[in-house]
Write a structure and sequence with these properties.
CATH superfamily of the largest domain: tricorn interacting facor f3 domain
CATH class of the largest domain: Mainly Beta
Strand content: 15-25%
Shape: globular
Pfam families: Peptidase_M1
GO molecular function: metalloaminopeptidase activity; zinc ion binding
CATH topology of the largest domain: Immunoglobulin-like
Radius of gyration: 28 Å
Structural class: alpha+beta
Keywords: Aminopeptidase, Hydrolase, Protease
Oligomer: single chain
Largest sheet: 8 strands, mixed
Number of strands: 24
Organism: Platysteira castanea
GO cellular component, one term: nucleolus
Strand order of the largest sheet: 6-5-9-3-2-12-15-14
Number of domains: 3
Length: about 750
Amino acid sequence: METQLDPMKDDLPLMANTSYMLVKHYVLDLDVDFKGKVIEGSIVLFFETGSQYRKTSRAGKESCQSQLDETCEMRASEPCHIPMTNVSTCSSKMECNDFAISGKEEEATSEEHSNHSNSEQASGISGSKDHCDIENHGNKDFLLVLDCCDLSVLKVEEVDVAAVSGIEKFTRPAKLTGVSQELENLRNQIVHELVTLPADRWKEQLYYFTHCSQAPGCGELLFSTGTWSLEIRKSGIQTPADFPHAIRIWYKTKPEGRSVTWTTDQSGRPCVYTMGSPINNRALFPCQEPPIALSTWQASVRTAAGFVVLMSGENSAEPVLLREGILSWYYYVSMPMPASTFTIAVGCWQEVKQQSFKQTAAIETNTEFSLPSSQTDFRWHEEICGHVEYPCRFQDPAARLQAVIPYRVFAPWCLMESCEEYLLQLIPQCLSAAYATLGTHPFSRLDVLIVPSNFSSLGMASPHIIFLSQSVLPGGSHLCGTRLCHEIAHAWFGLAIGARDWTEEWISEGFATFLEDIFWARAQQLSHDEIKGQQELKALLRWRRLRDEVQNSEEELQVLRPKKESTGELSESGASVVKHGLKAEKIFMQVHYLKGYFLLRSLARTIGEVSYLASLRKFVIKFHGQLVLSQDFLSMLLEDIPKQKGSGLTVESIFQNWLDTSGIPKPLLEEGETWKECQLVQQVSGEVTKWIQTNQRMRKSSKKKMKQDEVVFQQLLPDQLVLLLESLLEEKTLCPRILQCLERTYQLREKDAEVGH
């Protein structure tokens, strides 16, 4: 029996029963209403029967039944809601006690159900029908559970895909007797044929998904919403195989929904965007959140003219004028990915363009180092991919030679000039450096958007689009370049390769932090000694940050693999929890970035950077398009390490020292002092000493005396300045004149946000 989840606790529940039905494609058809601060419309979901049910269906459908039995035990005494838009669609024999409700969460309150247009009809069930007699009847019907939160669901219906013109090609010859069960089987057969089309027919597949999504409804389905889920059933349908495999949900978001934020941009114009919420996209559309639910999607989004809709689709959408003042934007993806990677931003964004000759020059300069020195590593592309079938760029000869993918930059009107200064030139340099390091770009294009000032981090990567904070724009190219490199790295680690268990964030953030330094060094075309110096300085800064975080946070939040040996395990239905996923302070913690980075740095030092980067490329080729656990990477890497270099490293020892414990890892404690000997750090130490001495003299002397004995300070790199200021903050007192002097010497107000912070 699955444990009941308390939504007030720190863990984020993933409710969807993906083991029984797995969504393969979403079709969204939405209107964005800035006055009401809602997004409303419909979503059509196309399903396959899940693996758990397929395995046991021949043996009497035990898996589906056991889930329903668990449900009955848990919910026997709870009230039952049967929202229906039109009661006439309900069978006259249907009684409340037929309706099984999932046992994984608290039932929604009547207040929550007041959003439904049918609350009067639902509340009309009274007397002995107030409670479901699940003990006797609840296990009759299969229950589909979707992840859903802060949404008003208005209607759920089955879609008659058999009514689509030309769909006959997806049906096998069958004896149709006109019985409704036969028609239901036919519809599900059509959906099965459609979702399993080979990759080279993806355009045809998209065409039929579009037409099927526009097919009429053929019967409403019963549904109930709770704190974390939407639960759907069809009266009399007992198994996932017989449940409708194409359903349409009519819904609207709520202004307070946590998946998107409604705000104004830096020019004061209204906008809405997905800002990387801990609850992901379940308050934007009903979906299957578990990472295992890899799916494709297409979306038509309508909004008032003057607004631009950017999404994580693989096409660069061009708006279509539907009627006066209303534009429609259409995006799609052909690579299956978790629903959490879906991203939208609607605002009065302006495209930042450069004169064409400048852009060409930028690309030419940076393709000089675009091909990796060991081109042989890239022959791994010739292997058969290990992922589910889709049109893969790793199998496309033209894509494999593309050092710089097409890119665009969008920003509010008032920030266009700032973007032109550094960001536009940096993108081709950073893309080229990433290609030189890891090879084929997993995605075919890139939009970069400067998001509103309420964005809580420096950047966020999604397929085909990166959000950057306005904070990366001022103060030179350093912060903008490093952040851009970090987000570009997520195309490989975090997106093309995802964590099978979301508690293993380090697989995404640790890799992106480690690769940020490699990409940025290549983008700047630094010498070997300059690279070494900058990376050791960066390591010291990160070490100090990690030390401070470990001292000031809960121990259990410092563990990179909090579920230890049960990492990646799911319940029988496919539901699970993200441990600490809702804990407020976790949003601001960097332990997954920092400990992950130091683990990867330690492994690179053990086997040598050249061999290590070759192993990373091999890992990308083997696992792109798939979900991984820590041991998948570590096992493959350790296989490649010659025994004499491995120095007793095992997956178990890495778990023990780095991933399964809190605090600073033991191997790192020994390394902490070595970075202080780096030349760039030594230079900062010298400057700190000068400032402390000056501070002491200033406190004792008058202004006149100080002027006779002027001190000469050296100019410092941005990271050196951060270290200098952090070191001076450790002093007990600094006199006001010293602060003014610091400002004058380094023009602190003109520096980047990290120095400013």
